[in-house]
Task: structure prediction
Amino acid sequence: MALARGDTVTFLLPNPSRLEQDSALKPYIQSGHALFVKEDATSQEDVRKAWGVASNKAPVDSVLFTIGEGSTPMVQTNLTRGIHLQARSTGNLILSKV
Result:
């Protein structure tokens, strides 16, 4: 796990309260290695905000995007356009720096 290695991880979540209460994450939250940004990962502006938080002290080394709970989106992959979400869904974006 990136946090156990001492990396800083920024979580972009629509509702971070569940993770903020996680006892396994508490030491990383207190040390500043686990950061939470309460926004919507399907919003370009919200992703920009999270990127700013994540890259504040050092460059971002990796990005993980997951589709969270709720409705299942229709996802299309196109070689020239990348991945396109047809339906709005709750997304989670995790930005990590070493």
